[in-house]
Design brief:
The chain has 2 domains: about 20-120; about 130-179, Membrane-bound Lytic Murein Transglycosylase D, Chain A. The chain is built from 3 helices and 2 strands. By secondary structure, it is mainly alpha-helical.
Length: about 180
Amino acid sequence: MINLARLASPALALLLGGCTTLYTESDRARQRTTGEVQNLRDQLAILKERVVATEAAQQDLDHRTERARSADAAEIRQLKDRLSELEKRLAALDAARASDREQIVTTLSGRISEAVKSQTGPSRGARVERGYEHVVQAGQSLSEIAAAYKVSVRAIVEANRLRNPNAIRVGQKLFIPAE
């Protein structure tokens, strides 16, 4: 025979204790779940705050980028305007330089022409002479050269503007006028 009293006590105890344990474990599981849910809610709130802060930072960066682009565009316009002004100045300087160069060439050409005329050529109104060029050789005298070309010594002296007819030298070029 089974002793119910003996069995009932442990079974009852187990049954009553098991319910208490089950209730306590269920309560603990619910508390853990509630705590985890609250923890997740807190983390979600923190993440939402971060998203809001990130969006605000993004907007700030967008505004800064737009201002920088606007400033860059304005600076580029200023630089283009300045470059255009410098190009105009450079073109004006080039034109002035070309004009100056032309004026200098004209002036120098005139001066060179005058210098050449005054040194070798006849003055205006003077007749152009024809003649020969003679290079003085060793041992030649002015009278020998004059006799060879059949002209007077005086004509050679005047044509070459010689100060001292006796001071001709070897290699000297003399103009011998044709008479």
